[in-house]
Recover the amino acids of this structure.
C-alpha cells in the first residue's frame, strides 16, 4: 500500500452554497480525513469535499490526511474509533465538533457544514 490519499485532491471547482463555504472555513477548525485510494466511496466523495475545502480557503495545514490499508488499519484509526471510510472528523481546539462517517443523506461538505453551524449557534445561545 502506498501512503497517499490522492482522493483528497480536488477535482474541478466546487460550486455550492456560500453558507457551506462559510461554515467549513470558520476560524479554528481542523479536519482529519481517513480514506483509501482503492475505496469506491472515497473516490466518489472525497475529491468533491477537497474542492469544497479549497473553495472555503481552508489551508493545507488544517487538513490531516490518513490513508488506511485494505484492513482499514492506519494512523489514528484506533484513537478515533474509525471503522468505515471515508470518515472526516472536524475539531476545534482539540475537541471534536462533528464527524462524517462513510455515507449520509447529503454530501460531506453540506453534512459537516450543517452540523458546524448548528453547534456554533447552540454555543452562542
Amino acid at each position: 500500500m502506498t501512503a497517499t490519499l490522492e482522493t483528497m485532491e480536488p477535482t474541478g471547482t466546487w460550486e455550492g452554497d456560500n453558507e457551506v463555504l462559510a461554515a467549513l472555513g470558520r476560524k479554528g477548525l481542523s479536519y482529519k480525513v481517513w480514506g483509501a485510494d482503492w475505496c469506491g466511496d472515497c473516490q466518489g466523495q472525497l475529491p468533491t469535499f477537497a474542492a469544497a475545502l479549497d473553495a472555503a480557503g481552508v489551508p493545507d495545514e488544517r487538513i490531516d490526511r490518513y490513508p488506511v490499508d485494505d484492513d482499514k488499519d492506519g494512523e489514528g484509526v484506533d484513537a478515533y474509533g474509525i471503522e468505515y471510510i471515508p470518515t472526516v472528523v472536524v475539531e476545534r481546539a482539540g475537541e471534536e465538533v462533528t464527524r462524517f462517517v462513510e455515507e449520509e443523506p447529503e454530501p460531506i461538505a453540506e453534512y459537516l457544514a450543517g452540523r458546524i453551524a448548528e453547534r456554533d449557534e447552540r454555543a452562542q445561545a
